Amino acid sequence: MRLPIPPGDFRAYLFDCDGTIADSMPAHYRAWTQALGEWGCTFPEELFYLWGGRTVDEIIEDLNRRTGLAMPVAAVAARREALFQQSLAEIKAVPGVLAHIHEAYRRVPFAVVSGSTRASVTASLTALDLLGRFPVLVCAGDYARPKPDPEAYLLAARLLGTAPQACLVFEDTELGIQAATAAGMASVRVPPPWLR
Q: What is the DSSP-derived secondary structure letter of residue 122?
């Protein structure tokens, strides 16, 4: 199913990665569940999807506060990433988004704007044979304030040399849609896996 695009003269497309380009959220959730379980921490699936768009470090810090645990952020993040990397072979592209990537490639510039690490984004896009389509990657660590703050989307627009109001954002999370709106950008909401 091709996703409908709002009217407008868009000069750049900005894509979230996980759950938007890559149908990777179930694999990420399994990696989270295993990595956190090793520390006696649970991560309800509803909360996982609600927190979509947040950085890995921010999620671990917040879970520590909520549970009273003292999980080492870097160690848990590295373990979660290693577990996710093991599942790359099962990752597929989101068809409705992939159609837009194929249709608009070379017509408008693309960027990825993600709360995931550069290593994770690069691995997902490489597994999908799409990395070469994205000259700009804005990932966790490239900006100070995560979604729903507009900083990451504004940085991507600046790197592409495009005015924010001329950018169209593809996002699967509420935090991402809020970030796009705060940046003055139009957006396309990518439905979650269970509605595709």
A: H
Q: Stretch 34-60: mean pLDDT, rounded?
A: 94
CA distance 24 to 122: 13
Contact 146, 55 (CB under 8 A): yes
Instruction: Provide CATH 3.40.50.1000 ranges for the chain.
Output: 12-23+92-195
- So what's the pLDDT on residue 1? 63
- 10 closest CA partner among 140, 180, 173, 129: 180
- What pLDDT score was predicted for residue 195? 65
Angle at which helices 73-85 and 118-127 pack, to 10 degrees? Answer: 0
Does the domain at 12-23+92-195 match CATH 3.40.50.620? Answer given as no
pLDDT one-digit tens code per residue, 46-57: 999 889 888 899
Model confidence at 168: pLDDT above 70: yes
- Summarised one tens digit per residue, pLDDT across range 64-100 is 999 999 999 999 999 999 999 999 999 999 999 999 9
Query: Beta strands 110-113 and 12-15: pairing type?
Result: parallel
Provide the H-helix boundaries in 10-94: 25-37, 45-50, 56-67, 73-85
Name the segment(s) of the chain with CATH classification 1.10.150.240.
25-88
pLDDT at 55: 87
